[in-house]
Antizyme inhibitor 2 (Octodon degus), 460 residues
Amino acid sequence: MAGYLSESDFVMVEEGFSTRDLLEELTRGVSRATTDEVAAFFVADLGAVVRKHFCFLKCLPRVRPFYAVKCNSSLGVLKVLAELGLGFSCFNKAEMELVQRIGVPASKIIYANPCKQIAQIKYAAKHGVQLLSFDNEVELAKVVKSYPSAKMVLCIATEDTHSLSRLSLKFGALLKSCRHLLENAKKSHMEVVGVSFHIGSGCPDPQAYAQSIAEARLVFEIGAELGHAMHILDLGGGFPGVEGTKVRFEEIASVINSALDLYFPEGCGVDILAELGRYYVTSAFTVAVSIVAKKEVLLDQPSREEENGSALRTFVYHLDDGVYGIFNSVLFDSICPTPILQKKPPMEQPLYSSSLWGPVADGRDCVAEGLWLPQLHIGDWLVFENMGAYTVGKGSLLGGTKTYHITYTMSRVAWEALRRQLLPVEQEEDAEGMCKPLSCGWEITDTLCVGPVFTPASIM
């Protein structure tokens, strides 16, 4: 092992002991404590991160994963991923400092922000971070002036109109401008070593990866024509982090593998990277949030409950965190989080129309509406699963930074697998969420990617 993570960094649990079990113990302990303020807290299963990594290696054996630090910068996550040998994609100085502080070498860091402050470019130069992204002339000129020995990666725009988060609205050079940018880099004696793209989060069409890989091939050919020694292809992110999404990770992997074989075949000398965030951490984190205020409202309109002779009652509950904090996915991803009651109500207890709100005096701080819940009380805990992405280590959207307590866990089996960098064979089929054999992404290749997916047009 590389020594980034030790047993003291997490709670070792035996197989069969669930996150829910630990949450129940922790909330019971907090409820007994005599504190003035009770804050939301997380339980993170680092073993789930380890399993996701082995699945990634099996499905995309030619792709070297980098972790997007902005997704979740908690130390437990960074340490376990560093132990697994990942590189790190950083968006600013603070993230570069953080990963270098735990011992990650500069050679494993990409400064992947196409919109960089000059001071942070100089920081990257001072601390040996060589790979930097750019997508326009102004950004290139800043790096030429502040870090002329940097290795540049040209970020290209993608077809992401169907993605939930469309990054190409903000980042990425159009194909028709790539030749001009590469010519300018050559004139400025800047070395462009590769191409990157990002199809955005929540893309329902895996063929978007194939199209972007095909377009990257065109840019590689232009770069070679101009004398750039291009040897890096960065596939970006956008990989799903939970089960049950419209497009499974295995389907995406199949399309990527086929496209790589077509446009960047094995042995071509190109290093294939990907920048993953949600994929690794979403399902690993569960959060417990307490109810801090409650209001009952009687509604006049007819309802199904009036048939039983009772007026409709709806309850408005305020949580100690909201959409401007850990529930920001409500605003950005249009997700309606579904709570799990920490205390199981009796079967005969009636359900009421309910809504969950954050603590901010703002009409948009609504976490969830249209819920049917038993009557809850101040101090009760609600549990939300799949809360690892863009919730921890982020500043509040209203300014400032809120620190959450995180209890890290890992099963003994996952710890041994991490130490040996190999998942035991007998655990492969039983591990929850684990991809099966290496062929799992290839079994559906024929139906997803037949022959040349795209024939790139020429670029003027």
In short: The domain at 45-281+437-448 is CATH 3.20.20.10 (TIM Barrel). Residues 19 and 356 are 23 Å apart (CA to CA). Residues 424-455 have pLDDT under 50 and may be disordered.
